[in-house]
Amino acid sequence: MRAVRLTRLGNRLEEADIPIPEVGSSDVLIRIAAAGICHSDAHYRAGISEIDDLPLTLGHEIAGRVEEVGSNVAHVSAGDRVCVHYLMHCGTCEFCVRGLEQFCRSGQMIGKNRDGGYAEFIKVPGPNAFPLPDEIPFEIGAIMMCSSATALHALKKARFKAGESIAIFGFGGLGFSALQLALAFDCGDVYVVEINPAKLASAANMGAIAIDARTEDPVEQIKEATAAMGVDVALELIGSAKTMRQAVLCLGPLGRAALVGLTAESISIFPYMELINKEAEIIGVSDHLASEVPALLEFARSGKLRFPPETLCVVDLDGAQINAALDALQDSIDHVRTVIVPRV
Ligand SMILES: [Zn+2]
Ligand SMILES: [Zn+2]
Questions:
Q1: C-alpha–C-alpha distance, residues 93 and 165, integer Å
Q2: pLDDT per position as a tens digit, 56-89
Q3: Which of 14, 19, 159, 344 to pair with 270, CA 20 to 30 A apart?
Q4: 59: CA distance to ligand 1 center in Å?
């Protein structure tokens, strides 16, 4: 089968012809119909994140049709539409038994610790394949399983509830999902902080109050819009020390800042005035849980979570096109996500 793989850190991905994986008794073989190209894939290619074994097929946002199932797999069968939960876990360690598989002692991420979706086929353990409702196109089924799933997990970690106000820092795949999910939760005012004019306009179109961080300090703008109260929840989805600090500073009393973006920088907080006085909280958010996938699929099936065609850019399973899409992620792209749709 065709695959586009990382063979050396820091190098461009390369096309390869590799065997179709053999299906074990608990596995599902999927013919990939769509695979999202994620910011983290650009980090893996650049060698910023640790990769154990090369060559590796990247891609952790995957949807397709079941080609074959092992003898122990009963919940899906050949021909079914499925999407993939990218965290593989043992199911028996002290974290897995508590439903916290993102901390699994022997957890692996598809597309990072083992071959992913930049290919014609992928083999995944049965529990990682979720039936994809007919109403959800493959492209959406693929990208939902990373950015939307993590956005939902972030809202849950922040204990976000109906009527609360929220500030969303960054309007890429995560922010685009977070805004729609917040609206689906019947939120109060939503502020979207961005520097990209096209993204500010689309956030405003979708019902958010656009905060242009190029013109004035976003914290001041949010304070002004909330009569100095601040917001109940802030999501930091960019991964910069500056916006992380802003996410904390725009909180009101009992506010929660959920930090999702990755950075190696440190942030400074003045505990008394900025945290203690307000009984504010800073919460770390890592990935998402298999138990959250059914709710997420229902948001998409019912049309509350949507990715209109103009938010997607489609490329073929082609080395040059995929490398170019990864290059483009280094700048702020106007569309939400690039998806690989292998030409049949
Ligand atoms: Zn991703
Ligand atoms: Zn485990």
A1: 37
A2: 999 999 999 999 999 999 999 999 999 999 999 9
A3: 159
A4: 8
